[in-house]
């Protein structure tokens, strides 16, 4: 009878320790992301929101701790501020819808119809705007839409003049900026739809549009929601676009926050509650659709 | 152009006289009897050894290696520059106490002084801050408070009316083309995008609606502010776009979106077509700006800071800054240094006090009426900021 001795394994004290203590594994796994999330993100945001209840020295603009609801009263009492909030909401929704309307057909074409070469070209074309600086893109749109700019020049033979600097141009520019954030999840989702579902749909007598409506869109829903969270919340917070291509009547919530952030931080903080509320409501609505769980 | 300028000077001189005749002592004549509650900050008594470096917050173009390197060679003080984008940003940065100097504009300086963020300046330690500094830039409300000097002048400029001569064929004599609803250029107007622009409406009202009793565009009671806001809302309907960014303003004029509106002499120069784009100071006068070095009350390098203020007050250096930025230099002696300098001074009206007589330099609107009224409370910059958002709402 022989006894076999297992070869001595190199001892791994750290692994053993982590294996024995479950809490240590958790701490090791979560400490870094949680420090980031709570320490840097939530705490700083909370500190900002707290100042919404503080006072300001009207002469020196120094912030004085205390408790007042005046800042919120200001935000909700002035008709111009309410108009601005609703305008911002409208812009964000329009950008989201427009991005989705562009993304779905493009995604279907890229994923199912285009040749591999064409697909690569389109993928580059979609992500190309991400390569350029944010301000560069806005200035490019600015030049396009000036009175003597490219758009008017191109459309002149048809007797069409462009929107100039207006709320329409703001929506177009924001769509241009955030479109990749919608297009990429939609394209990825469409790629994952098996081709035989299209075939099956066709075999059962469905036309192209019926297939898209009854097969593709339901499967796309989570991707569209994911993309819309980006386009919606990014548009809500923006103010540079309104400043450069908005013309005279395109003030957004971000514009008001920006003009107050140095001079009157409490009012800026009170204003920043509005986009937060919009995003929370939006997330709650989308959660009810069940789309977030499938993301 | 010379003739235009002469005519312009005559007009402004006459209107300045008219104003001076009927107006209460104007605030841009000096701080007068106004007394403010200012924290008592000691000033530097004697110059000592340089500390080796100095931290400066400045407008873009004010601190450049072309002259700061020479300064470092001469004094041993290394210059650390931080470029600020807005006056509000400058105020916030100065509050951190991390900086020694700031090139504050008038709309920031009063806040800095009253907030105790800057210290009084000992003029005896600044030999270059002397008689050559143009009279219009000394003893202003925004840098001289309760008899103490807080700022060393750098340069100034007026907010002019710029227009596209191909569309606006005659030199406008009044600001009315950018304010009145029936302007022939409705829809092609540009206006400055900041709460301080309310003062431009006030300047217009001072001339056209004297019954409002505005004596100083930065001292508006509630009724006067409401009138200015109404005028701005009327203007909003004819504005093509507001500008805060100089590049945006230039492209707006070049691209044809805008044919008339508020501008700076330097922006007109940047269009590189000063034939096509004219600039004028209309009969109502205008707002303007004036910058001055101010030293932090918490400065840990006061000696280097004083050396810098003195260095940049010298004719050559002050002129270099003024030419680089595009403004009228504070040191009038610069204008005699060369033909180029003289041409620059001519273009920016550096020595033309009559021109600047009718220019109301930006200053922070505060509750204490700076026109001397005590029976009413004036509106503060916070009120202006809130009002500004409602105009574009």
Number of strands of chain A: 2
Strand content of chain A: under 5%
Helix content of chain A: over 70%
- Rg calculated over all Cα atoms of chain B: 20 Å
Largest interface: A-B, 37 and 41 residues
Mean pLDDT of chain B: 87
Strand order of the largest sheet of chain A: 1-2
Q: Which stretches of chain B are poorly predicted, pLDDT < 50 over at least 5 residues?
A: 1-32
List the quaternary state of the chains. Answer: heterodimer
Number of helices of chain A: 13
Shape of chain B: globular
Summarize the structure in words.
With 295 residues, chain A is mostly helical. The longest helix of chain A has 35 residues, at 79-113. The relative contact order of chain A is 0.12. In chain A, a hairpin with a 6-residue loop joins strand 1 (55-56) and strand 2. Chain A is built from 13 helices and two strands, in the order ααββααααααααααα. The model of chain A has no long low-confidence stretch (mean pLDDT 87). By secondary structure, chain B is of the alpha/beta class. In chain B, 36% of the residues lie in helices and 17% in strands. Chain B has 14 helices and 13 strands. In chain B, the strands form two sheets. In chain B, strands 1, 2, 3, 6, 7, 8, 9, 10, 11, 12 and 13 form an eleven-stranded mixed sheet that branches. In chain B, strands 4-5 form a two-stranded antiparallel sheet. Chains A and B meet through helix 4, helix 6 and helix 12 of A and helix 3, strand 8, helix 8 and helix 14 of B. Chain A: It is found in: Cell membrane. Chain A: It is a multi-pass membrane protein. Chain A: The chain crosses the membrane at residues 26-56, 62-82, 89-111, 117-139, 151-179, 219-237, 244-261, 267-285. Chain A: Residues 85-286 form the ABC transmembrane type-1 domain. Chain A: This is ABC transporter permease.
């Amino acid at each position: 009878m022989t006894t076999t001795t297992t070869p001595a394994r190199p001892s791994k004290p750290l692994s053993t320790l982590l294996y024995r203590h479950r809490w240590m594994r958790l701490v090791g796994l979560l400490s870094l992301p949680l420090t980031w999330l709570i320490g840097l993100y939530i705490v700083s945001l909370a500190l900002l929101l707290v100042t919404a209840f503080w006072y300001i020295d009207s002469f020196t603009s120094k912030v004085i701790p205390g408790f007042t609801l005046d800042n919120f009263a200001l935000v909700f009492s002035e008709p111009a501020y309410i108009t601005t909030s609703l305008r911002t909401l409208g812009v964000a929704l329009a950008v989201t819808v427009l991005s989705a309307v562009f993304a779905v057909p493009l995604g279907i074409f890229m994923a199912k119809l285009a040749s591999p070469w064409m697909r690569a070209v389109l993928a580059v074309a979609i992500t190309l705007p991400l390569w350029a600086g944010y301000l560069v893109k806005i200035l490019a749109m600015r030049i396009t839409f000036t009175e003597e700019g490219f758009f008017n020049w191109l459309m002149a033979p048809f007797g069409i003049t462009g929107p100039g600097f207006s709320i329409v141009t703001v929506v177009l520019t924001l769509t241009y900026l955030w479109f990749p954030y919608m297009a990429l999840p939609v394209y990825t989702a469409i790629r994952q739809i098996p081709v035989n579902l299209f075939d099956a749909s066709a075999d059962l007598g469905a036309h192209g549009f019926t297939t898209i409506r009854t097969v593709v869109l339901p499967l796309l829903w989570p991707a569209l929601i994911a993309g819309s969270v980006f386009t919606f919340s990014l548009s809500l917070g923006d103010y540079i676009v309104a400043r450069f291509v908005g013309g005279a009547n395109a003030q957004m919530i971000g514009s008001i926050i920006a003009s107050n952030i140095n001079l009157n931080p409490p009012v800026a903080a009170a204003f920043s509650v509005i986009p937060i509320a919009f995003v929370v409501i939006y997330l709650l609505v989308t959660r009810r659709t069940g789309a977030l769980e499938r993301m | 152009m010379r003739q235009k300028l002469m005519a312009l000077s005559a007009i402004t001189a006459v209107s300045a006289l008219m104003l001076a005749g009927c107006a209460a002592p104007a605030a841009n004549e000096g701080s007068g009897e106004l007394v403010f509650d200012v924290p008592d900050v000691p000033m530097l008594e004697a110059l000592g050894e340089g500390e080796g470096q100095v931290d400066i917050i400045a407008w873009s173009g004010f601190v450049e290696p072309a002259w700061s390197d020479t300064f470092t060679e001469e004094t041993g003080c290394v210059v650390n520059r931080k470029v600020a984008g807005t006056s509000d940003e400058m105020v916030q940065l100065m509050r951190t106490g991390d900086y020694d100097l700031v090139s504050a504009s008038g709309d920031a300086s009063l806040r800095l002084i009253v907030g105790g963020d800057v210290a009084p300046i000992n003029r005896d330690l600044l030999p270059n801050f002397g008689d050559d500094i143009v009279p219009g830039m000394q003893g202003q409300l925004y840098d001289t408070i309760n008899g103490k000097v807080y700022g060393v002048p750098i340069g100034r400029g007026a907010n002019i009316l710029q227009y596209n001569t191909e569309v606006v064929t005659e030199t406008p004599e009044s600001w009315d083309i950018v304010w009145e609803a029936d302007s022939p250029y409705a829809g092609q107007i540009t206006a400055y995008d900041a709460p301080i622009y309310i003062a431009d409406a006030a300047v217009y009202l001072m001339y056209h609606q004297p019954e409002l009793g505005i004596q100083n565009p930065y001292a508006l009671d509630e009724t006067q502010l409401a009138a200015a806001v109404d005028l701005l809302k009327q203007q909003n309907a004819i504005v093509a776009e507001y500008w805060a960014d100089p590049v945006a303003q230039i492209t707006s004029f070049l691209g044809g979106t805008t044919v008339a509106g508020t501008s700076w002499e330097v922006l007109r120069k940047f269009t590189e077509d000063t034939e096509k784009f004219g600039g004028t100071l209309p009969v109502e006068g205008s707002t303007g700006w004036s910058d001055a070095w101010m030293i932090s009350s918490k400065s840990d390098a006061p000696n280097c800071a004083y050396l810098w203020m003195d260095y940049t007050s010298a004719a050559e250096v002050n002129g270099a800054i003024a030419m680089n930025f595009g403004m009228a230099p504070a040191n009038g002696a610069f204008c005699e240094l060369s033909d180029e300098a003289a041409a620059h001074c001519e273009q920016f009206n550096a020595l033309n006090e009559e021109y600047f007589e009718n220019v109301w330099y930006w200053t922070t609107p505060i509750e204490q009426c700076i026109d001397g009224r005590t029976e009413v409370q004036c509106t503060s910059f916070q009120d202006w900021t809130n009002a500004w958002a409602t105009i574009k709402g």
